[in-house]
């Protein structure tokens, strides 16, 4: 029982803030869940031990009461034997009285020790149950904190992802601008080429006109 109570006291004295801090650093509930499992296991052990020790205490108490009744009966018998002058019977009764009284005292002493152990187990059980309630409350808050942290981390990753998309869009924008610059250049070149063609056409047409004018002049002058 002493070993069990030592382990229970260790669990009771556990620093909840340290457990929570460790869980937050690890970003995991594992350390808290493990502590809760240990507490629950020890509560079961306390229940069993308390039932055993409590039962033994009741047995010792009952035996102590039975022997105490015999002691009281023998005490009265001794007085009766003495009053009737039956010394031999009084001596025998006194001997049985002494032996029974020793057994009674022994049972009562054992009962007191067993009852003390029983109360220690019950007290440890109450304290450990209170600790378990405290840890379970902390677990709810801790889970909420971890969920919030994970949510923020997810939001951060999404934002980074959006940033990556934005950068990609920026790259596409540069590509589009480059293509547009090439199109603008090609358009300008086309305009230049078109102007050249028009000039060539104009030159050809002007040359034809000059020839027609000269031909008309020759005809008027009668020249071939």
Put simply, the count of helices is 4
State the helical fraction.
over 70%
CATH architecture: Orthogonal Bundle
Cα(first) to Cα(last) distance is 145 Å
Radius of gyration based on Cα positions: 55 Å
**Overall domain count:** 1
Query: Strand content of the residues, in percent?
Result: under 5%
Low-confidence stretches: none
The CATH topology assignment is Helix Hairpins
What are the secondary-structure elements, in order, as H or E? HHHH
> Would you state the CATH class?
Mainly Alpha
Integer average pLDDT: 81
Largest sheet: none
- The count of strands amounts to 0
- Kindly name the structural category: mainly alpha
Shape, please?
rod-shaped
Please give a structural write-up:
The protein has one domain (2-169): Orthogonal Bundle (Helix Hairpins). 94% of the residues lie in helices and 0% in strands. The chain is built from 4 helices and no strands. It has helices spanning 2-12, 16-26, 30-83, 87-221. α1 (2-12) packs across α3, α1 packs parallel to α4 and α3 runs antiparallel to α4. The protein is rod-shaped and about 200 Å long. The N and C termini lie far apart (145 Å). The relative contact order is 0.09.
Write the layout of secondary structure elements.
Elements lengths: L1 H11 L3 H11 L3 H54 L3 H135 L3
Keywords:
single chain, about 220 residues, mainly alpha, Helix Hairpins
Give a nutshell description of this structure.
This protein has helices spanning 2-12, 16-26, 30-83, 87-221. It is an all-alpha fold and 224 residues long.
């Amino acid at each position: 029982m002493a070993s069990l109570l030592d382990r229970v006291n260790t669990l009771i004295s556990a620093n909840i803030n340290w457990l929570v801090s460790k869980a937050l650093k690890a970003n995991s509930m594992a350390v808290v869940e493990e502590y809760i499992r240990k507490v629950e296991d020890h509560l079961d052990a306390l229940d069993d031990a308390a039932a055993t020790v409590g039962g033994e205490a009741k047995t010792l108490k009952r035996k102590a009461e039975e022997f105490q009744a015999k002691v009281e009966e023998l005490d009265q018998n001794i007085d009766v034997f003495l009053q009737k002058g039956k010394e031999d019977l009084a001596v025998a009764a006194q001997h049985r009285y002494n032996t029974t009284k020793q057994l009674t005292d022994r049972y009562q002493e054992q009962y007191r020790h067993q009852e003390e152990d029983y109360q220690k187990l019950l007290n440890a059980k109450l304290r450990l149950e209170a600790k378990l309630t405290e840890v379970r409350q902390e677990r709810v808050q801790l889970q909420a904190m971890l969920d919030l942290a994970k949510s923020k981390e997810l939001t951060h990753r999404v934002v980074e992802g959006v940033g990556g998309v934005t950068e990609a869009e920026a790259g596409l924008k540069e590509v589009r601008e480059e293509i547009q610059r090439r199109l603008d250049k090609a358009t300008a070149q086309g305009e230049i080429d078109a102007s050249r063609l028009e000039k060539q056409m104009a030159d050809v047409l002007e040359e034809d006109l000059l020839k027609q004018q000269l031909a008309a002049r020759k005809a008027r002058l009668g020249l071939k």
